[in-house]
Amino acid sequence: LPWSEGNRGGPEGHSFTYVGFNFIFFYLAKLVGIVDPMLLMFFNRLIHGIFSLVAIYYAYKITEKLSNTKNAIIVAWLLALATVIPFMSVRNLVELAAVPFLIWGSWLLLVENLKYKHNFFYAGLIIGCAVSFRYQIAVFAISIGAYYFFTWKFKEFFLFVAGLIITFV
């Protein structure tokens, strides 16, 4: 803690985006009269749990596109019942709060449909949200950008990077 003996300063390299969203949630809850810690955490964890369903949905869509519907159903059920996604998503861990953004953005990169011309930009925006939650996830975003750059897909590269930069800034 800041006032602890031997403390040389605050933590460095941590984003305040996720913490800020939690602050706003608790502030708004206080404004409407919800102050009981049990009730606050119930609603906070409910929101986290519902948001984690995004990861399950897009994992289903990714598997269906890359494999088949039968395997996609198996993946969805395994993510929903046999993994840490639902269990850990309600624990307010920034690492897991970023997962739905990563999977959603990955889905957008896989969709090859002409009516979705700007998917690379939208994927950059969404994956940029994950990076703004947890800076270390930038390795994921840099890898995607490097793929498009080194495969000479400069239009996709610039759209993706533009989305990342807009969200991150």
Q: Mean pLDDT, nearest integer?
A: 88
* DSSP E strands, number: 0
Secondary-structure content class: mainly alpha
Instruction: Please state roughly what percent of the residues sit in beta strands, choosing from under 5%, 5-15%, 15-25%, 25-35%, 35-45% or over 45%.
Output: under 5%
Give the low-confidence spans. Answer: none
Overall helicity: over 70%
> The biggest beta sheet, please?
none
> So how many helices?
9
N/C terminus separation? 29 Å
Task: Output the radius of gyration.
Answer: 19 Å
Key terms for this structure?
single chain; 169 residues; mainly alpha
What does it look like?
The chain contains 9 helices and no strands. The chain is mostly helical and 169 residues long. The longest helix is centred in the N-terminal third of the chain and has 30 residues, at 37-66. The chain is globular. It starts with 16 loop residues before the first helix and ends with a helix. The relative contact order is 0.10.
